[in-house]
Amino acid sequence: MDAPTRTTASIPIHTHPSGNPVGKPDTPYLLNCWYVAAMSRELGAEAMLTRQLLDTSVLMYRKADGTPVAMHDRCPHRFVPLSMGERHGDDVVCKYHALRFDCSGQCTHNPHGTGRIPAAAKVRTFPLLEKYGFVWIWMGDEPADAAKLPDFSELDNGPATGVAHTYMPMKANYELIIDNVMDLSHIDHVHGEIITTRGQLSPLIPPVKEDNNTVNARWEWRQTPAMMIFANFLPDPTAEARGFFDITWSAPANIQLSVGAIQGEGALDLNDTVGQYDLHTCTPASATESHYFFATRRNHIVDDGEYNRMKIEAMHNAFVTEDGPIIEAVQKEMNTNDFFSLNPVLMSNDAAPVRVRRLLARLIAQQSRG
Amino acid sequence: MDAPTRTTASIPIHTHPSGNPVGKPDTPYLLNCWYVAAMSRELGAEAMLTRQLLDTSVLMYRKADGTPVAMHDRCPHRFVPLSMGERHGDDVVCKYHALRFDCSGQCTHNPHGTGRIPAAAKVRTFPLLEKYGFVWIWMGDEPADAAKLPDFSELDNGPATGVAHTYMPMKANYELIIDNVMDLSHIDHVHGEIITTRGQLSPLIPPVKEDNNTVNARWEWRQTPAMMIFANFLPDPTAEARGFFDITWSAPANIQLSVGAIQGEGALDLNDTVGQYDLHTCTPASATESHYFFATRRNHIVDDGEYNRMKIEAMHNAFVTEDGPIIEAVQKEMNTNDFFSLNPVLMSNDAAPVRVRRLLARLIAQQSRG
Amino acid sequence: MDAPTRTTASIPIHTHPSGNPVGKPDTPYLLNCWYVAAMSRELGAEAMLTRQLLDTSVLMYRKADGTPVAMHDRCPHRFVPLSMGERHGDDVVCKYHALRFDCSGQCTHNPHGTGRIPAAAKVRTFPLLEKYGFVWIWMGDEPADAAKLPDFSELDNGPATGVAHTYMPMKANYELIIDNVMDLSHIDHVHGEIITTRGQLSPLIPPVKEDNNTVNARWEWRQTPAMMIFANFLPDPTAEARGFFDITWSAPANIQLSVGAIQGEGALDLNDTVGQYDLHTCTPASATESHYFFATRRNHIVDDGEYNRMKIEAMHNAFVTEDGPIIEAVQKEMNTNDFFSLNPVLMSNDAAPVRVRRLLARLIAQQSRG
């Protein structure tokens, strides 16, 4: 259940005819796929959110019926960010000359001159999917394909007090964030007591499986005691436990991570262990800045809202104070040099992240040829 | 009277033989013309002012007799800004090695070695004209031509308590500032109650007149009540009034704007209306930063110094808090892309600013060929 | 004794096989020579120091036996700065994945997989020499040559209370710092009362001597009274004294400066005068940032530690508040333009610094051809 599969459910895509699709043949990003644009809770009833995604300013808000909208945050007239303007029902009105645009990006009101609306007065909109507590955006020129969103529906299985989401802006290329999660051998060195494997993880050479669209790695080990985040929920918190990590990257930048611990008999999966189902996913802002989103659902004490709040706060703080400074320091040291051009010394623990980098590079190269 | 004409008056040009004229064949700026370098009041008796103009550091100060001086703010010896040094009568002494330069940019004292002054020890100076409360600078290599300064002498007609000047640095290309003033259809949307036309301006398609050197646009309308800045000075502050805007751009970056309101009979000009004569003028600092200067003279309660002070403060604040953030946001969104390369959707209200952009581009192209 | 000569003493070079020597054929820096990397006192028993030298991040620390170590501050695995990690005896452990490196840059422990250490898992190290209160680094690819460190052993002649060192980061190219010291004609204009020559220095045209590796200049004059820093130690503090400066640049960026004053008979050298032996030396961080190091030993009241402390503090403050702002303003005004491309007006007082610039340019050009 940990490896996401292509969903074929008829989920509603909040899409609109695109006003100004701009082909970017030299883009460094995979385009015809879903990126997280925001956490669902970031889009409220009235406010507008602007965020740079794939080098493009994107305006997001919710219609009165709650469905989210995304469009280029740039009036096609004089290039003012529409986010400086105001909502007018489901439309947005530019602050500079009051051109009004509906959710399809179409200009619907021009207070100037005869009021005629120029044929080109359209804002490019972006298809959105709202799932798993996130708003996903499709920034490519091909028709949005809901089936290309991996299935992370495990996040929805259970009460709200068992699930949490968070967001961190990062001054680093998004592939450095993927590297960090795809090679979990860092956790005993970077992180503190609560998620240590006590050195058991590093010696493992995790089996790595790759298909056309995903890369999976899996670790299994024994440690005494179990990770602190699980130990207290096991029969004997101080005794040996078996543990596992199972991670699956899917394009463009999603990593589904399952982790759990068990004492005694049982399978190393989320049915039998005390564990959690996580999603790490990131979206490039630019070549050197990213949006890092994270969601987690645990399978124990799922009704304890206060524990839920404390746990996501602790995980958020670990990203910000432990992973974040290292990843951002690497970005600074690498500057804008290509990773492989710097001749990294690769080891067995790099198998999974390197396969992701190479598969992603192939997918991006294919789109440029296509 | 609103459209400036070429003045032929024998005004004194404070010019000096240029020490180091540097041809800039690839300049993005119109060179052989007058830009505002400073407000007259910025140049005091002793202090030195340094300001980046057209990508060049410029030092300005006043001689003992009050005439202003401008020169490259760079010692030709070791490139120290002369503004770090000290005044020595009408001369300036470099802080680093005490070379002294007179107002013609000529080195007049060298305390080193034999004291011989190298032939090349000259600082490039720039011709200045002080008129209309501003110090105007000529940065081209052709001889300065006072006749090329448009006539804004209406600014001088009346007591000092009826005239005011202000200055705002802007993080935007100067053409975006010109765009803003040349298309006044923005005022009902960007500005507050005091200068609203209550939506009367936007539907108008203003006649635009262009000759070799100027672009003029004019709006006339009725509104109830008149603009707040004029209503209280009309016979019936709450009743309908006729209003007008008349603006004329002249190279490189001057926009003379007249605006007024009237009830009953009379011409829509500054003789008959309650109104004001304004000058918006801006000077590039670099491709993405500008100096925005503004002067205004009103034709009513011209002896009220306290009203004068409050009014220029209000207008300054409107530029800084209302126009400024929009113009700077456009600059950020456009980055250094050429305006037309981004395919703006142009409308009837863009006729005047687009003609200015095209005429200015032609004038700059002509200078490159010349 | 003032002009440094090549030392042939068998001083220990703390060097190690270089892990990853990268040829830089287009470097703007002279490489096969010694630069100061740090003051000796900056490297303590435990702490690690990171500093950008010649566009390269360098990690420095001391081994348990006190010898200093320098290596590229970049783990060859994932490019994390090793300075984020921890000391492990004489080794350093990377924060990210706990690879351990010894002082030769060799990876000695890999906790991952089988523990095999990849052949390429080496960090480039840099030979160091610790002399004269400084740690000197050799960043070129040729074998480090201790004989290439000029002899500044006069700094060591005397008690510690007569010697002091300081350091200032500067936002300027290092050649601008060399220019400043090689042309001492600036001191009457830039500095205050304590080191003025009362205008006696500027008229002198100092003899400049150049050989293949050094440029020397010398000034001698009379002034009344002597420089304040020396006057109180002369027989008659208010009477005329003879003074001298003798400076010798040696590659890449060392200037040994001797200065003294005398009344009555005697030679203008540090044996007979009340004076001091200084070393100005700087190391490029990048094209526009430098590390400025300074050491001074005086030949009078050498046992007064409090005087020593006050004097170095005063000299440090003079660099920071007097020379520094000028040099940094020149950098800003020049931007990244080449000095000679801006057509500086050169005078007799520029003979020494210009010879240094040209000799250094020749040495750098030779290395590119070599």
Automatic annotation (TrEMBL), chains A, B, C:
UniProt biased composition (Polar residues): 1-10
InterPro entries cross-referenced by the UniProt entry: Cholesterol_7-desaturase, Rieske_2Fe-2S, Rieske_2Fe-2S_sf, VanA_C_cat
Enzyme kind, highest EC tier: oxidoreductase
Oxidoreductase is among the record's keywords: yes
Keyword Transport: no
Domain Rieske: 34-137
Keywords assigned by UniProt, alphabetized: 2Fe-2S, Iron, Iron-sulfur, Metal-binding, Monooxygenase, Oxidoreductase
Pfam families found in the cross-reference section: Rieske, VanA_C
EC number, as in UniProt: 1.14.14.-
GO MF terms, alphabetically ordered: 2 iron, 2 sulfur cluster binding; metal ion binding; monooxygenase activity
Gene3D superfamilies: Naphthalene 1,2-dioxygenase Alpha Subunit, Chain A, domain 1, Rieske [2Fe-2S] iron-sulphur domain
Protein name: Toluene-4-sulfonate monooxygenase system iron-sulfur subunit TsaM1
Annotated organism of origin: Hydrogenophaga pseudoflava
